[in-house]
Amino acid sequence: MSNCAIPTVDLSVFFQNGDEEGKKAAKAIISRACSEYGFFQAVNHGVSLELMSRAMELTKTFFTLPEEEKIKYRPRSGAPVPAGYGKQPAHSSDKNEYLLMLPPQSSFNVLPNDPPGFREVLEEMFKNFSKTGEVVESILNDCLGLPPNFLKEYNDDRTGDLMSAKRYFPATETENIGISEHEDSNCITFIFQDEVGGLEVLKHGEWIPVVPVKGTIVVNVADVIQVLTNNKFKSSTHRVIRSKGRSRHSFSFFYNLQGDKIVEPLPNFTEHIGEPPKYRQFVYKSYQALRIRNKTHPPNRPVDVINISHYAISPHNNQVYSS
Asked: Within 13 Å and on the Cβ side, how many CA atoms surround 310?
């Protein structure tokens, strides 16, 4: 296990006017973190610490309800994603139960009435995460030297954003995987984990634990950002490891991309600097469909799991290859 630590950055300077030197220093940390790790931890990130504490408390209460109560909030048929309560099937390598939520205004949401106040807290958490997403997106835009508001205008549809509250079951004597190693397919992910921890990031073949710090949110850039930047910012492999005798609880917010958007390396990171594109063009919803199939119909061989390398271009002959 590596002793490296995921960089931490104070985002307070981005929620106020002035202090250009402070912003410059924070952007330098974020740029390095996104290039080397694909992850950083954020403090003073705009999400109320009181709200985070209340959300975690109510989440833990919800997941202790009897199964017959939780399944009352199963997803509606016809929903674009299974918004509502769900549990990983027994054969899955992922060992957790979850509550998935679309934006608060979505008619597909199935939010619990029990415990009291949980629904309202979930909606408030979603709104807070969304605002922080816009701030971080703007910061990344500046870190990459893109024209003002480029990423905001490219990613201008927030209807596909998702939030998930999860409970990971305690590890057994024979296995401890909560979520198997993977990369996120979206734009930016925000993670708020309880004191149990378990999130780990792969760097140079070593798993680096992301140690929980009260009030901290973990931020990672995902596949869309990696492709747009032609690998300048990396979408890192990560996993969740479960502890013996303890459940782990977390919130994940997926700052997403509208399905019909075309994703490809930007000229700023290819032709403008004399670099060949490392990925071919694709439509985001097509990639999402492949990733969903990974979950619903797991391949027999790990090599057949679809990830972003499916769209990679071989550096040797400039030809597309699929993983």
From this structure: 19
Q: How far, in whole angstroms, is CA 58 from its chain's centroid?
A: 22
How far is 194 from 240, CA to CA, in rounded Å?
13
**Pairwise CA distance, residues 116 & 58, whole Å:** 9
302 or 154, which is more confident = 154
Calpha distance 106→118 (Å, rounded): 17
CA dist., res. 293 & res. 258, Å (int): 19
Helix (H, G, I), strand (E, B) or coil at 102: coil
Task: Calculate the CA 285 to chain-centre distance.
Answer: 17
Strand partners, 39: 220
* Three-class SS of 193-245: ECCCCCEEEEECCEEEECCCCCCCEEEEECHHHHHHCCCCCCCCCEEEECCEC
The pair of three-digit structure tokens given for residue 109, joined into one six-digit string: 């949401």
Write out the two tokens for 275: 């670099």
Residue 224's Cβ-side half-sphere holds a number of Cα atoms within 13 Å equal to 25
| Per-residue model confidence as pLDDT tens digits over 103-138 | 999 999 999 999 999 999 999 999 999 999 999 999
Contact 233, 142 (CB under 8 A): no
> Residue 61: which residues within 8 A CB-CB, separation 6 or more?
115, 118
Question: Is residue 218 within 8 Å of 191, Cβ to Cβ?
Answer: yes
The burial class, CB within 10 Å (0-12 / 13-18 / 19+), for 44 is: middle
pTM of the model: 0.93
pLDDT tens sequence across 185-240: 999 999 999 999 999 999 989 999 999 999 999 999 999 999 999 999 999 999 99
> What CA–CA distance (Å, rounded) separates 306 from 55?
33
| Summary mean pLDDT of the chain | 91
Report the distance separating Cα 148 and Cα 138, nearest Å: 8
pLDDT, tens digit (0-9, with 9 covering 90-100), for 153-179: 999 999 999 999 999 999 999 989 999
Other residues' Cβ atoms within 10 Å of the Cβ of residue 282: 17
